[in-house]
């Protein structure tokens, strides 16, 4: 196993707003951070910006929907740094629409990116984690995987499915020093949410009891907690972080 200060973390969908803050926080925690991406131009610009802010991340390109591409990415990380100790499944997309008009393509794209990607990434790191008797897997789901959300049958199905993976994988590897947990954020001030018309955004905020959107740093803080070595007795859990918008 990698030494305490050299644990290797892989974050998928790293160059987005939430992925960026997760990468920063894990770097601040002392991990070697491998950042997965799809868009070369965006990733290179992102890396330069991060370096200007004092962060060193290692870029690894792969479409996480592609099983073989993920396998090659994991092999490259292992060759460059060693076994992935911490996997954060953060990649995700939305292609909303009411069910009666939803295309097969929009269903398949969202399921592939938000759910099949979790299988692909977990499948290619789990045996190595078992061999070293240590690992942390954190799956970024959504409040809309816990409740109904009009126009998001594909997204809600994928995000609920992520926690289904979490629960079962967690008990399969519980005695191998590996924890598997889900985080289900509510509405967070990402670029995607901030691009929503202000009028709509204000209606969303009005439905959040704490009276504001969540911060990407707050989600990253929870990732940091679940990724820690000392968080060894929490597994198969789903952490809601939504400002009280959905309680149960």
Q: What would your notes on this structure say?
A:
With 248 residues, the chain is α/β, with parallel strands linked by helices. It has a single domain (4-240), classed as Rossmann fold, CATH 3.40.50. The protein has helices at residues 17-28, 40-52, 67-80, 104-132, 153-172, 191-194, 198-206, 216-227, and strands spanning 8-11, 32-37, 58-61, 86-89, 135-140, 178-185, 238-241. A seven-stranded parallel sheet has the order 3-2-1-4-5-6-7, with helices on both faces. Helix 1 (17-28) packs across helix 8 (216-227). The N and C termini lie far apart (38 Å).
Itemize the secondary structure elements and their pairings.
Blueprint: E1 8-11, H1 17-28, E2 32-37, H2 40-52, E3 58-61, H3 67-80, E4 86-89, H4 104-132, E5 135-140, H5 153-172, E6 178-185, H6 191-194, H7 198-206, H8 216-227, E7 238-241
Parallel strand pairs: 1-2, 1-4, 2-3, 4-5, 5-6, 6-7
Helix pairs in contact: 1-8, 3-4, 4-5
